[in-house]
Amino acid sequence: MKIFFKMLLASILGILIVSVILLSIVAVIGSDTPVVVKDNSILKISLNKPLEDRAGIPNIDIFNFEVTTNLGLNNVLNGIERAKYDNRINGIYLELSSIQAGIASVEEIRDALLNFKESGKFILAYAESYSQKAYYLATVADKIYLNPFGSIDFAGISSKLTFFKGLLDKLGIDMQIIRHGKFKSAIEPFTLSKMSDENREQIKSYTGSIWNHILQTVSVSRDVETDELNRIADNLELAMAEDALNKKFVDKLFYEDELVAELTKYSRGTTLNIIEIDKYYTNPLPLSGGKDKIAVIYASGEIMSGEGITDIMSKNIMEAIGKARKDSTVKALVFRLNSPGGSPDASEFIARELEITKAKKPVVISMGDVAASGGYWIATSGDKIFAHRTTLTGSIGVFGMIPNIEKAMREKLGITYDVVATNDHSDFPSLTRPLRQIEKNYLQKKIEFVYSQFTGKVAKSRNLSVERVDSIGQGRVWSGVNAFDLGLIDYFGGLKDAIQEAAKLANISDYSILELPKELSAFEMLMKTFETKVSKSPDNELIRSLKHYEFLINSIKNFGIVAKLPYVIEIE
After folding, report:
1. In a domain, 381, yes or no
2. Would you call 184 a catalytic residue per the annotation?
3. What is the mean pLDDT of residues 433-457?
4. Helix/strand/coil (H, E, C) string of 95-122?
5. Is 373 a catalytic residue?
6. In whole angstroms, what is the distance from residue 265 CA to residue 473 CA?
7. Catalytic residue among 133, 184, 384, 457
């Protein structure tokens, strides 16, 4: 009995301790400490945390009692816009030693900074060393500074794919593929040991397009011809900080302590007052105070059916769209899309909800880093489509993938299977036997139907013939520049541009922003945090491989027909 009471008391004490910790963390998350911005302040923007379209669930370390959140692109953009008109902010300091953002998100921030410069305020950039993406962003600055022991990565763009065919062969796993689209490269890591000619062609096309855009931007900013920039990249001529200075890539070489004096001079104050962007945008202001609203719906991740807090879950997004449609104060809707695709069914459900809404109020699509395959399927339901020149989109194609693990289980683990079925195909689809021809025909028929629906939606939305859509479809991925030339998007621009277009279509000028889906409460975020994965740096070679591995595992677990980009493509 004594042991029982000891265990009972220990359990109660443990629950009390955990409850105190959780409540304390909730208090930290829920607290909104007022931000004090001093006169002659400099706004510091650092992208050393993962950047999301909208700041998500906090990462909570209960052992170290720390709460961290990723950066929200929406908040960064709002912060830059506020700083433009804030008389307490003299300028912006970009600290770019580390940058964790997609290339299109970087472009969107760069465009916002260009708009900020219209105020006449300064922008300075500094890094210990610049990655290629970081340097692209830095070229918006009036002055670019570099540590004397630093360098600039400037070597062009590459896209590396990991192939699993050799591993699958060793394991005895046969990946059975049904597809429409010769460029639908999502399946290649499981069927080939290197890129197909078609895949190499499409990657060369969109990486070349993005690189040319970067070259032109750098050329204008630094007054260096694009041919010279390519020559510098081909010969890796920026290994030393002095090289970067001599070739006009940077303006001065500074140690960090020397940078403080430079920033103090620019701040026009006796002391240096720096405020971090994630402190400055606390409780971001709406664009204006009008009673009319523009709803901005954020959809980021893989497209799936059902409910949930991660990725693009169809029921959650449909509910948000419905809420915006039924709200009489909402005059237009902007759908912010950042997705490699996923379930065709879920994509169609969301697209249908947007089409119903479009009949009542304007719908504008804003593409982020990627809006491809199922993501582009959804985009066809907008009145207008905005994308960046560096956005990856298109991938109009469909595939099905069913692994056969029978040999692997038998030869590696000694596990065999036997089935009793009432009909010839009662166990279809199965992971433990090869597909029969009639089953392949069945899947092919479904895939051809989905593909015809996809191309038909694109043709109707973009005023193109089905034959034309098929010729630019076939699962091929395009850059934003390519997509504009092909008529797949309407304008270049970011979220702010899409909001302005929505206001124009709705014929309103005084409005506020309603962001959907509704954000979770502090306690809800805390509870859901324990279901999330640890954030990983996209610049880590091991993590890139793990992304491919995760794609492999998800493909085995969730086999079926999907309209999806090979989202593990990394542009470096």
Report:
1. yes
2. yes
3. 91
4. EEEEECCCHHHHHHHHHHHHHHHHHCCE
5. yes
6. 55
7. 184
Sign of dihedral through CA atoms 446, 173, 532, 276?
Answer: negative
Q: If residue 514 lies in a helix (H) or strand (E), which one and from where to where?
A: strand 511-516
Which residues on neighbouring strands pair with residue 488, listed in sequence order?
none
For the ranges 163-172, 282-291, 375-384, the maximum mean pLDDT occurs at: 375-384
pLDDT surpassing 50 at residue 516: yes
Catalytic residue among 267, 339, 373, 479: 373
The CATH code of the domain that includes 368 is 3.90.226.10
Per-residue tokens: 524 = 């809800």
- Are 390 and 467 found together in one domain? yes
| Residue 89 placed within a domain | yes
Judge whether 390 and 482 are in contact, CB under 8 Å: no
Ramachandran class of 414: left when φ > 0, alpha when ψ lies in -120 to 50, beta otherwise: left
DSSP 429: S
For residues 85 and 142, give the distance between their C-alpha atoms in angstroms, rounded to a whole number: 19
Q: Smallest Cα–Cα separation from 556: which of 184, 168, 183, 163?
A: 168
Query: Are residues 253 and 376 both part of a single domain?
Result: no
- Is residue 79 packed enough to be buried (19+ CB in 10 Å), middle (13-18) or exposed (0-12)? buried
User: pTM, whole model, 2 decimals?
Assistant: 0.84
The verdict on 152 and 262 lying in the same domain is yes
72 phi, psi to nearest 5 deg: -105, 125
What CA–CA distance (Å, rounded) separates 10 from 325?
52
Q: Are residues 274 and 298 in the same domain?
A: no
Compute, in degrees rounded to 10, the torsion defined by CA atoms 355, 357, 360, 362: -80
Tokens of 548: 């491919």
CA distance 350 to 305: 10
323 & 211 share domain: no
Residues 6+ away with beta carbon under 8 Å from 181: 396, 397, 398, 399, 451, 473, 474, 475, 476
Predicted confidence (pLDDT) per residue in 140-183, tens digit: 999 999 999 999 999 999 888 888 889 988 888 888 888 776 65
**What is the amino acid identity at position 455?**
T
Q: Could you tell me if 45 and 113 lie in one domain?
A: yes
